[in-house]
């Protein structure tokens, strides 16, 4: 199934998180998420301040930050509220439901400051859905949706094994109140209200030395029909990160809106 227009999807989606994301997309003319894989809070916050206006989401890995603190997450939340982006912790949960709960509340208190987190599907629906639903439906937590990992970008990924992605999609399709999106390489759900976020994007390189596979923006958005581009080192390892960020933003937005403009 192809993509429908943002307007249509905004009307269709029941997820408050997706409503927020789509409104940011339209307001900022951006379908870009920046993956900031820096390891100190100072580096991250400096980048967030500069990048925030151009993106709809900032993705971090809380468990790689060497000086992680509550003051960091408070500052991040403040920046997200002011600059209007979603805070995304790419925790990739994959354990029993009970352990996932402990990880969401543990030392990093992820559910308190992240708008959205990633989860694998490998542990099965009963270890995912009720656990996240409890947090998402509780207003004491900021967490308001999950992204289900349906396909990984890495070479030889086992998500390519027959039926895996299909089963993951089924979990999402049947629980659209909490699963607001996929992490995927190519558009996979019939339901156009679920946003397809895609990592493995780089305009200047094809791979790193540890299994990452990159492709360009047009491939990811026009051919593979994803919605949101997740870019990391293409921006963060560059000498001129904000210049690069603007380049990715423009290319990704043009790719997404091309079809809509052609229809008009
Ligand atoms: N990521 C992938 N591929 C996946 C899922 N997640 O690359 O299938 C994450 C990585 C990293 C970011 O953990 O934070 O997206 C990609 O960054 P890069 O562009 O620098 O490789």
Protein architecture, described:
- With 264 residues, this protein is an alpha/beta fold.
- The protein has eleven helices and eight strands.
- Strands 1-2-3-4-5-6-7-8 form an eight-stranded parallel β-barrel, surrounded by six helices.
- The longest helix has 23 residues, at 241-263.
- The model has no long low-confidence stretch (mean pLDDT 96).
- 6-AZA uridine 5'-monophosphate is lined by residues 35, 37, 90, 152-153, 183, 199-200, 202, 212, 230-234.
Task: List its salient traits.
eight-stranded parallel β-barrel; pyrimidine biosynthesis; globular; 8 strands; transferase; decarboxylase; binds 6-AZA uridine 5'-monophosphate; 264 residues; alpha/beta; EC 4.1.1.23
